[in-house]
Amino acid sequence: MSQETITGTAPPVRQWPATDPAGVEFDPVLRALMDEGPVTRVRLPNGEDWAWLVTRHDDVRTVTNDPRFSRAAVVDRQVTRLAPHFVPTRDAVGLLDPPDHTRLRRSVACAFTARGVERLRERSRRMLDDLVGGLLASGPPADLTAAVLSPFPVAVICELMGVPAADRHRMRDWTRLILSATHGADVSERAKDEMGDYFADLVGLRENSTGEDVTSLLGAALGRGEITLEEAVGLAVLIQIGGEAVTGNSGQMFYVLLTRPDLAERLRTEPGIRARAVDELLRWIPHRNAVGLSRIALEDVEIGGRLIGAGDAVYVSYLAANRDPDVFPDPGTIDFTREPNPHLAFGFGPHYCVGGMLAKLESELLVDALFDRVPGLRLAVPPEEVPFRKGTLIRGPLALPVTW
């Protein structure tokens, strides 16, 4: 990247190491970058060179919704990145731009509409009731993550995808290897290839299907010639691994609630505020480490008083945007009455998380089930003894020991 594309004094390039902040601590490196300015420059542990980092809410929305910033242009570029194995490739669905990205999402859109998500509500509630029933039958103490928070999202996303129940454990194992930064690029890529082969077979078998699950919709679109098998597989893998985010998010939510009894008590006694509370917790919790996928500026664009030059790599931080004090007064405080709450937990623009509505439904069902059926739910260990995942892109407790 050329310094000639920058007007004025360029901000220094800051190293952003792969760290594992304790518990639900906000990344101190990101906090320092936010304090430095709305648009800074960073170098991540892998890849090459540096990239712009955009942290202000309005600027993040601009970059993610502006066609002058391209995901597709990242392909064949060794952009600085967090994980060694997230190398941009042409078959990566997350790196498509409209209209190709729009065409591909359209093939599964009906599964993620309000009607499509509502179709899963009762089945999801029944699956969750069974898991909570098993938790109660086994008795305390228990690991809430292992008993409920991990198997529930896996069951729901597999139900949505049309993956048979017998294969859920394989999906969970593949997903965790793909998202881990500790096993090495080869292990992660092999898991991704194995999951891709699985979905290639499943989608291929459903080319003439009239089902409403995602693999059936992809199979039907493939049969009509609207998408390729490679595109169908790429989207299936992306949606499947996206379901793992609910495990991390819900683990953090319940860690926060069980370490702040005043918040938990409000949800027990005021069920009417639960939907807004889930939105506020989604805004506040630190979903991931560092940043996701980058974009490339296709022309010179001014953002936040900085001239981002054509060809420059750009990252946005949704975590930072959700702590923007100009949009969220007192952003470090969890406020269940916050209104409005235009958080960006599920992204923004064409790449807005296709499963965002489903993820919110799962979180609301978890809050209802656990606070209504397990009224005495509390941590079984001191908060500092709750183990959190290390070396993974999605943050969350490894285990959540509870009693009641």
Comma- or semicolon-separated keywords:
six-stranded mixed β-sheet; 45% helix; globular; 15 helices; disordered N terminus; 404 residues; alpha+beta; single chain; Cytochrome p450; three-stranded antiparallel β-sheet; 11 strands
Describe this structure in words.
With 404 residues, the chain is an alpha+beta fold. The chain has one domain: Cytochrome p450 (Orthogonal Bundle). Helix content is 45%, strand content 8%. It contains 15 helices and eleven strands. It has a six-stranded mixed sheet with strand order 1-2-3-9-6-4, with helices on both faces. A three-stranded antiparallel sheet has the order 5-11-10. The chain has a two-stranded antiparallel ribbon with strand order 7-8. α1 links the parallel β1 and β2. The chain is globular, with a radius of gyration of 21 Å. The N terminus is likely disordered.
SSE topology:
Layout: E1 13-15, H1 28-36, E2 39-43, E3 51-54, H2 57-65, E4 69-70, H3 100-106, H4 114-138, E5 142-143, H5 144-149, H6 151-161, H7 168-179, H8 185-204, H9 214-223, H10 229-242, H11 244-259, H12 261-269, H13 274-284, E6 295-297, E7 301-303, E8 306-308, E9 313-316, H14 318-321, H15 356-373, E10 378-379, E11 401-403
Parallel strand pairs: 1-2, 3-9
Antiparallel strand pairs: 2-3, 4-6, 5-11, 6-9, 7-8, 10-11
Short description:
This protein is 45% helix and 8% strand. The protein is built from 15 helices and eleven strands. The strands form three sheets. The chain has a six-stranded mixed β-sheet with strand order 1-2-3-9-6-4, with helices on both faces. A three-stranded antiparallel β-sheet has the order 5-11-10. Strands 7-8 form a two-stranded antiparallel sheet.
